[in-house]
Amino acid sequence: MVDNEKQASGGLVWVAKFADGSSKQLEPEPRCICVGLIMGCRTSICNFAGDVWKLGASDPRKVVHCMKVGLALTVVSLFYYMRPLYDGVGGNAMWAVMTVVVVFEFTVGATLSKGINRGIGTLLAGSLAIGVHFVASHSGDKGEPIVLAGSLFLLGSAATFSRFIPWVKRRYDYGVLIFILTYSLVSVSGYRIEKLTELALQRLSTVGIGGAICVIISVLLYPIWAGDDLHRLIPANIEKLAASLEECVLQFFNDAQDDDHRKASRIDGYKCVLNSKTTEESLANFARWEPAHGPFSFKHPWKQYLKIGTLSRYCAYCIEALNGCINSGIQAPESLRQQLRSVCANLGICFSEVLRELAASLKTMSKSSNIRFLVHDMNNAVEELQNSLKYLPETMHENAVTIIEALPVVSAAALLIEIAARIEAVVLAVDELAELAGFKDEEGDQKHQEEEHAKEMKALQQV
Amino acid sequence: MVDNEKQASGGLVWVAKFADGSSKQLEPEPRCICVGLIMGCRTSICNFAGDVWKLGASDPRKVVHCMKVGLALTVVSLFYYMRPLYDGVGGNAMWAVMTVVVVFEFTVGATLSKGINRGIGTLLAGSLAIGVHFVASHSGDKGEPIVLAGSLFLLGSAATFSRFIPWVKRRYDYGVLIFILTYSLVSVSGYRIEKLTELALQRLSTVGIGGAICVIISVLLYPIWAGDDLHRLIPANIEKLAASLEECVLQFFNDAQDDDHRKASRIDGYKCVLNSKTTEESLANFARWEPAHGPFSFKHPWKQYLKIGTLSRYCAYCIEALNGCINSGIQAPESLRQQLRSVCANLGICFSEVLRELAASLKTMSKSSNIRFLVHDMNNAVEELQNSLKYLPETMHENAVTIIEALPVVSAAALLIEIAARIEAVVLAVDELAELAGFKDEEGDQKHQEEEHAKEMKALQQV
């Protein structure tokens, strides 16, 4: 009987097992090794292909983006291939290609931000460098390198330092990098000024062509807006909180019964929210560069989305602590759980209703007429919980439950009350956003529809 | 009586106020406006200069980094200025300058990562492009642009897509960007192959010169190691947690008495930890590229630092919830606070002792002999708290305290118990790191010192 085992190293080893239980390792034949290697490669290639396929299927916009980059590169290269520049890669064509490669980003906002930064950085550095060159060329043979190298050292250091200033880093980091790059390149060049000006203009125009191709393809072909992403991310996160809260409450007050795996994945939704700060900030940063598109004006209050994000994160921190209660290992006594089960379940439902209403209001960009009732219900549910808690000492006494045993239940209740307060803060922030961004009035809409309907009925009656 | 008021626009308006209460706005004289503008500019320039000075003073390494960048730029420009390249900026000199500008980063790890990525990306793309050029040049006049443009589209798209794969994005993002850039540049060039190979070699050598200048200056002149930064950040965060916890417990169980501002800033320390994930991950990512330096070998287990960071963050989430209890607005009754004050204060001290010991152990890279006693003390303090809690119902009954009033105290106690469990998880992770990184043994060291001392004494006696 010949059996194969996988070694830790991933190679194949052939072992002959005999009927008496003994076994003997067979010397590997070269053909076997080859087959093993090929099989190993095939498996890892298949795995890799599967991962890549999943990545593309999970967000087809990524595939679209890649095609757009390929298209932009082809367009810019054909543009120059049509009238071949036999002065070679060093010619100005390369600046257009380079701009396309470096500037084309996933979202329109990022592309615009980089393109504008690149343009302005090049312009500023070019003008400054020509000025310094003029001074240097009038400083004599010995003075020239000193002026050039000295100015390069000073400007390079100062510009690098400016990249540490938070607001520069946030919005103009790439512009400063391009400033340093352009200034250094012009400094190194040994041209006379007349030629330098000509060169600078040529370079600006090629950078402009590259940038224009990027922006046109980015905006016109299936544009991917950072603002849209942010506008989808915030309600998605709020919905994740809703699902986590629902599941947390259910799991804490009931015994786990059905599919645990599904539950765990629903509970873990809040973990995405814990670490979404960086994503939110970069999206908001890019969204500010984007022109008006869809329902968003140029001055859309993206900062307010960050505020909502931060407040949602505060909810998530509390859910984390609540989850800690669930996983603390101390199973709360059935009597206490029974007493609080219905009120807490009710509170959990109220939470998720408020959160889902907020998410819907954000998604549709309409003021919710329901939200104040839902918040009212939530506050009532909190009061109910507080009332039920009043009878807890009695129940504990009757069932001989110590306070240590009751601790998880009591602290879970306290956290639920705290979460209610934090959800109200999110509600207020969404209200503010509704005011700032001029969300449409759902009630007004309904009235409007009713009026329209009445008019139609009248018209029909007249006919 | 002439009075000046500041308008919202920031300009100055002169208003004459008369004794009867009436006032008249004076027409601004041009000189006044000028003075106002100059004063305004001076103030904002002074503010800006102050901010910049603070930024530099807070981390002088930033200033050092800027000088290093300036120096690298000057060196590379002088290198080429000495033998002027009158074929201009388009010549190969620009690749060395460009490499310096783009590759020189704050930490050695980031510089090495970018430099190596740039080198390998250029090499791979160059070889591939020469191969494709060879195929294209044998495809006839009509086939050539099709092969070139087609390959550019396919490779550009595929390479862009690969940047979405998480592990590529994490470590090789810049290399792939350079791959696309180099491939496109060679595709656009209309050179024959012999000349292309020569060009490619020249370019590689200039990129090498630029990269070498960066790496040499970055490593030899006041090197800033990402590993060092990570190795400082993790214990600093743990110390912040210790300070926050100490202050939280004090503030909750005592009435605020002394300087509130100082306390608030100590409490808020944990907030840095909540959002440090991105920083930690990027530092660990760069640290992996760094050669052995100081006490760190090339294979230092940087990943374990991330694990410690994550577990510290879990503590911070709980502290956030605890802080929520403090700020909930419900002042817990004095009787309950008095009952738990001493045990909770003791627990708070135990927390901060354990955390500070962990931080010290991480900083000095030595195994702590005390830590197991401190953890033992902490667990005892938790038990004491649980014992004190047992008498809480009685106290509540005696002082007619409802459970709603007791809620903040009880949930704070539960959170403190949860925090103890999470701190133990951090202790275990630090232990693991000590094993993986071979921290020196404090006890062993003491023994060794004692033996040395005994030998010296013997030697002295013999003399």
Your description of this structure?
- The structure is a homodimer of 463-residue chains.
- In chain A, the strands form 2 sheets. In chain A, strands 1-2-3 form a 3-stranded antiparallel β-sheet, with helices on one face. A two-stranded parallel ribbon of chain A has the order 4-5.
- Chain A is 77% helix and 4% strand.
- The N terminus of chain A is likely disordered.
- The first copy, chain A, contains 17 helices and 5 strands.
- The relative contact order of chain A is 0.07.
- In chain A, β2 and β3 form a beta hairpin.
- In chain A, α4 packs across α11, α8 packs across α9 and α13 packs parallel to α16.
- The longest helix of chain A is centred in the C-terminal third of the chain and has 35 residues.
- Chain A has 3 domains: 57 residues, no CATH class; 160 residues; 228 residues, Methane Monooxygenase Hydroxylase, Chain G, domain 1 (Up-down Bundle).
- The first copy, chain A, is mainly α and 463 residues long.
- The termini of chain A are far apart.
- Chains A and B meet through α1, α2, α3, α5 and α6 of A and α1, α2, α3, α5 and α6 of B.
